[in-house]
Structures are given as C-alpha cells and as structure tokens.
Write the structure tokens for this entry.
Amino acid sequence: MTLRDLINKLLGRQAASAGMARQRLQLVLAHDRSDLNPELLEQMRREILEVVSRYVEIDVEGGDVSLATEDRVTALVANLPIRRTRPLAESGAAAAATDSDQDPLGNDQAGDAAPEAVATPAADSTTDRETALGV
Amino acid sequence: MSAASSRFILICSGKGGVGKTTLTANLGIALARQGARTAVLDADFGLRNLDLLLGLENRIIYTAQEVLAGSCRLEQALVKHKQEPNLALLPAGNPRMLEWLTPEDMERIAALLGEAHDYVLIDAPAGIEGGFRNAMAAAREAIIVTTPEVSAVRDADRVIGLLNSENVKPIQLVLNRVRPRMMANQDMLSVDDVTDILALPLLGLVLEDEQVIVSTNRGEPLTLNSSQSPAARAYTNVARRLLGEEVPLIDPSKERQGLRARIGRLMNTKIF
C-alpha cells in the first residue's frame, strides 16, 4: 500500500485506477489470446475439478482454474487447495502410509492429511499447490 | 537503392483514433528531413486522411489503383511534398473505387515504391479485417501505435497476434498520448505496464500535446518546422531511432518538475 492509497482510503475516495486497468487487461488478454470462450473454459474447469476430486478431496470454494498470461504465453493455472486425499483413491494407499517415515518429501508437515498424502506425493511437494498446463 | 534494402514499415494500432496517421505523417517528414527518401502509402482508402495531415489534399490526381491498372505511371501518381521533396505520398485508392484491392496488389505497389525510396511507411486502416490484411501484405516490419488505455492495448494485442502469424518482424511500440501527471497519480497504465503486457520493445514515447491538433488544423506536421513541442521532439526521436541512432527515451516522471511532482513521488512510496 502506498501513502496515496492510505490517504484515499481515509478520505473515502476511489483508489487509483491504473491497477484495476492492469488486472482487467491481463484477464481479458488471456482469454483473447487463447481463443477459449468463457463457456468452454467453465466446462473444462468443471471436468478438471471432477477428475482431481476423484483422487483428492479439494476445497472447491477456495479453488481457482483460470487463464494467466505473461510474455505473450498463456497458461492454464489451477490452484486447488487439497483438504485431504481420498482414503479409497488407491488401494495401495493404506500400505504405503505405514512406511511414511521413509518418505523423502517429509510429508509430516501436511497436517491432517499426513497418512494419506503419501498416495499423492506431488500434491504437497509444492507449497502453493499450483499446477500449470501450457495451452 | 533496390527494393531489397528498402524498409517497408506498417504503422498500425487495431483501434482507431490512437494516432496512426499522425505518426505516419510526422515520421515521414522527419525521415525525409534526415535525408532518407521516404514514401508514405495511405492504405486506408475508405477513410483516407494522410493527405489532409500532410496538407496535400488538393494535389491528389491518381491513386495506386490507376498505377496498377496501367493508366498512369507511378511518378504521376506520387504527390511530392512542397517543403520536403524527399517525401512523397501515394493514396492506395479512393472511396468510390469500383474494384477492391487485393493483398497481391498491395505487395506490387510496395515493391514499386521500394525501387526509388529508402523507407516505405504504410498507414494501415483501423480494424483487423480485409483492409488491414491488405496493408499488412505490403509490410516486412511494423510499428504498433497505442495509448495507455485498456481498449487500445487490447486491440493492439490482437494486431500483434496477426503480425506474428504472418511473420512480420520486428514489431516495435510507440506509446502515444502519455499524460505524465495521470501516470504519476497511478490513474493511467504506466509505460512498463504497457510494454510488459504487449511484450514489445519501445521505439518511442509521445506525450499528450495540444500542438498536435494545431498542426493538423494547418496541414503541417510538427516535425516540418523544427518545432520544440514535446510531441515534435518525440516523433523526431522515433525517426532517429529507426535510422539506427541511439536516442534515450524520455522518463515521464522526470517531465514534471517542482514541488507538486515531488509530493506526487512521495505519495507513491510503499509504506506497508
């Protein structure tokens, strides 16, 4: 926050608009460049959530599948917070959980998901749980 | 000079009214004044205005269409500028034209212009349809003109996509109608915002300048009379950079001096 933002806030004035312009542009350009219409994107989002939730229980409310763009390259960015993995996701999950102390990824940081997390080590190996697909 | 070493530069923006034709006229004059033999081709034959900005509206007799049809020679159709003989204008056509030009026609006319000119500037029509595609066919490189506004930047992005797919390169950016005070107040997209979003190198930065309107009223581009107005200097610098000279870009925040500017900078420091 800048001094200007603070003063604007205290006086109840509108915030400077350049930041909004930047954000709106980045979003609209991501759509323009990928040539995906919002309907198709919504369908893809639903299917991705469906596939992912077969393996792990995800926080649908806090999740986000959107297009992002940088240097004229558009990426599909899915940010799906994982509540916990499904106990039934893999039959081998229970067996794997017993030797979690050998897990090189240090899964014991994963809170309540610790025993199950071994089934999907990739899910908690990244702190921000971001997955990106190039489109 | 053969067509092989001539430069064919498309001046385009997507959105209308951002300053394509003004840039073409000023750049044409500035290049000619630096000694480069320059032709400006008005590819917008539906709504042509380049003749008006150059003050040549009463001297047009033929267009590229008659040249292509063989009913006149190129030299007859070219309109030489009175004060700046290194500059010539060729309108692609007129609004009453019966047959529309094709991309092949535009390539042919550009090649003809390249035979006796070092620079061929092609003033593209607004939009991304047929007229723009015709203009693009005649070009090897491009200058995108945009303003720091969401609609102009979005349209510029579409045009860049088309130029990329047709392998027109390099593509350089001229950011027009910059208002330093609004930028300092963060009420206008910054120069970095625009260059980051469009991912293009910056060829020029033109400040908002009332003298531009005065000069169009007169039909005398600002670069014609060694004007020292901010826009005139910016256009001349674009020409010098095109010719290969290293000219530093202006810094919009330094364009404002005094106490108010200093308070403005203080207001933009991050506090938490």
